[in-house]
Design goal:
about 260 residues, alpha/beta, five-stranded mixed β-barrel, 7 helices, globular
């Protein structure tokens, strides 16, 4: 028996996403937050929330607007991120904003810079179950219209915003070797993270618009090949708060369509 073709893989799954099993609706606009510290900022600084378990994460629903926006996280890695996304879509989410962190591969990126993703180079295993990705450099794009809305929302931030970015999505954070970094930089990637290409592929498969805002948390672009962790730098913490505010405001606008 031969391995299934892509047309076979495109058939319905035997196991349905969580929302298909009589779960409560989350409303039309969803924000996916990969980092737990950003989830804490949103819980504490953006009103009162209903909070419930959502797999190994939390699902936040506004108490005064239960069918408006939802926020879910944290999550790490492509398979788990897509598991959450599938369930959000099954629970009624029609458009999704992703808020995460990334490592800079370019010397032009410093911790605290904001990055809007246009294209993610897929170096993970999940996206191939949602798209027919062949060739040496499989790439997946964010939704063009929603990404433009995100760039408009970032207009007041200024020079620290990098738009139309190409990034590298990898499953193996501890195998970001100098050779791999150089190869993906040569292919146009300016940053690296662990979920975007898979989230973009799953959203495209489900015909749901998605866009991603990333905060540069660290740099792999040192001339001597060293790693510069920026997680505790004041600028990174300041820009994380700003990114949370921008992502929340845009997600709120999306409740009414875009």
């Amino acid at each position: 028996m031969s391995y299934p073709t892509w047309s076979d893989l495109n058939s319905p799954s035997i196991v349905p996403p969580l929302g298909k099993r009589k779960a409560k609706s989350v409303g039309p606009a969803a924000l996916m937050v990969s980092a737990d510290p950003d989830m804490a900022l949103i819980r504490q600084g953006f009103g009162t929330w209903q909070s419930r378990a959502f797999f190994n994460s939390r699902l936040l629903i506004k108490e005064d607007d239960p069918l408006g926006i939802s926020v879910t996280g944290p999550y790490i890695g492509a398979p788990y991120g897509v598991m959450l996304l599938e369930s959000l879509i099954a629970k009624g989410a029609c458009t999704v904003i992703v808020l995460g962190w990334c490592g800079g591969l370019s010397p032009d990126l410093a911790p605290g810079d904001l990055l809007v993703v246009k294209t993610a180079l897929a170096d993970e295993g999940t996206s191939r179950h949602y798209m027919d990705l062949r060739g040496d450099l499989p790439a997946v794009n964010a939704d063009t219209h929603l990404t433009a809305k995100l760039m408009d929302a970032l207009g007041a931030v200024g020079a620290n915003v990098h738009i139309d970015a190409t990034i590298w999505t990898t499953d193996a954070i501890y195998r970001e070797t100098p050779e791999k970094v150089a190869w993906y930089k040569d292919k146009g990637a300016c940053a690296v993270e662990m979920e975007c290409s898979a989230l973009f592929a799953a959203a495209a498969f489900r015909k749901i618009p998605i866009a991603a805002l990333l905060v540069v948390s660290d740099s792999l672009a040192g001339a001597d090949g060293t790693w510069d962790p920026g997680f505790y730098k004041k600028r990174f913490k300041t820009m994380r708060k700003q990114a949370c505010g921008i992502a929340m405001a845009l997600t709120g606008e999306l409740v009414h369509g875009f």
